Amino acid sequence: MTDLYRLARPVLFRLDPETAHNLAFWLGARACAWPVLRAPERSTALQRRVFGLDFPSPLGLAAGLDKGATLLPLWKALGFGHVEIGTVTPRPQPGNPKPRLFRFPEAGLILNRMGFNSEGADVVAARLRHRPAGLLVGGNLGKNKETPEARALDDYRDAYRLIAPEVDYIALNVSSPNTPGLRNLQAPEALKPLLAGMLDLRKAMGLEHQPILLKLAPDLAPEDLEAIVEVAVASGISGLIATNTTLDRGVVPEALRERVTAKGAGGLSGIPLKAKAREVRQRILAALRGRLPLVACGGLGGAEDVRGALDDGAALAQIYSALIFEGPGLVGRIHRGLVEPA
Ligand SMILES: Cc1cc2nc3c(=O)[nH]c(=O)nc-3n(C[C@H](O)[C@H](O)[C@H](O)COP(=O)(O)O)c2cc1C
Predict the structure, then answer these.
(1) Can you give the residue range of the structural domain that contains 59?
(2) For the purposes of burial, counting CB atoms within 10 Å of the CB of 160, is it exposed (0-12), middle (13-18) or buried (19 or more)?
(3) How many domains in the chain?
(4) Residue 176 catalytic?
């Protein structure tokens, strides 16, 4: 798989990023059909139990790469401990007009304003019914663009009804910068009824033991973070994921800032997000005082970063941008780096 990627990479990086994404998914689907595709050996030292689930490794694939759960066998074969599919919206929607995805390999940076392109929850749920065994799958849920903020709970509930029965955990995405108003749902007065409404539905569906997590933005002020943590702990959800992409152009290396700004709106991810995401996670961990587990995400580029996040107190870690730039061999490298002494 790593060799295949090494061959394909120069071609993929010369193409428009979304065309490259689609081609990589096409190649990935062909690779899934090979009988030789087998999950690599992973050290038992990587195993951990978090929110009642047994993770074979702390490393997962963050939401947004496999929005429709089309390549689960591939993620399993790459060795990920878990995959977060989505964001899935209840009804299908096309997302923002193209171009909406931009790569800056020299800085390990991605800018995206995909805007929840989603096939809709029923199509994705049907696909999940054929998910491979032995891979933990999270379902990341969002609202449709045209749904007013005041009706957001209805959308999360509609998506939940279809996706929750097919996955191991649910992540509520209230932190994408590309759906107008979505981040307002992080405000405590909006968050309280949202979380309460989701936990009521979970109980009504008899899924009390399935974890619900909340995914947060890196752009929250420290005092807001503390208030959000208290709402999350009091609500009874199972954990937090931090962080999503940032709107802060200040993280971009100066030499690149003009070019990035010229591409327009969107969230930034990858290496330039690293310091900011870590700082936000450390604040969240301090406020949590061990009351809920945290999944680290944002700017994790290799084993050292993942180890750093786990040493800070995160229970699990997720990557996205680094996988695009480094290729599938990164998963094994991170695993080896985690089991070998630093
Ligand atoms: C192209 C792209 C699409 C994304 N789509 C989603 C999404 O649909 N839902 C979500 O919760 N996060 C989404 N994310 C955010 C990632 O899950 C992750 O939080 C962020 O990229 C930071 O991690 P990274 O620096 O390792 O990429 C997306 C990121 C990228 C680059």
Answers:
(1) 2-339
(2) buried
(3) 1
(4) yes
